[in-house]
Amino acid sequence: EAEWLIPLAHEFEKYRLVLCTCSFAATVFSSFQWGSPTLTTLFSHCFVDEAGQTMEPEAWIPLCLLRPGGKPLFIGDHKQLGSTVHNPFASKMGLDTSIQERLWTALGGGSQANATSCFGLVKAYR
Fold it and tell me: What pLDDT shows up at residue 88?
């Protein structure tokens, strides 16, 4: 029978890969003491899958676990299903814009000038 567990803070160093949802990353974060040197050096990369649906505040949770100089990668399609926001005020304040859409717009996605930071697939093989 499969079992999920949350490693203790000192146990994270023995894992090469940690998988979790953006919101569950808060649980990972809370297993460390505030200011822990391990917390600020542990994660070198953060992959946010389905970033076209991920609200910006939600994506900041795992991004806070990156070490200085760490690499965030946002994977998804901002032109498909976007962030689901039911509150009209939250939508008006911009929470219905996914982090990927916001970055695509801010970084000039799809342009030759910024092709190393933000790019899209030309053809999908489905």
Answer: 93
CA distance 68 to 44: 8
* Residue in this structure with the two tokens 């029978």, named with its chain if needed: 1
> Burial level of 46, CB count in 10 A (0-12/13-18/19+)?
buried
49: left (phi over 0), alpha (psi -120 to 50) or beta: beta
The pair of three-digit structure tokens given for residue 41, joined into one six-digit string: 């050096």
pTM of the predicted model as reported, rounded to 2 decimal places: 0.74
pLDDT at 89: 95
- Angle in degrees, 0-180, between the axes of helices 99-106 and 56-63, rounded to the nearest 10: 90
As a whole number, the mean pLDDT across the chain is 81
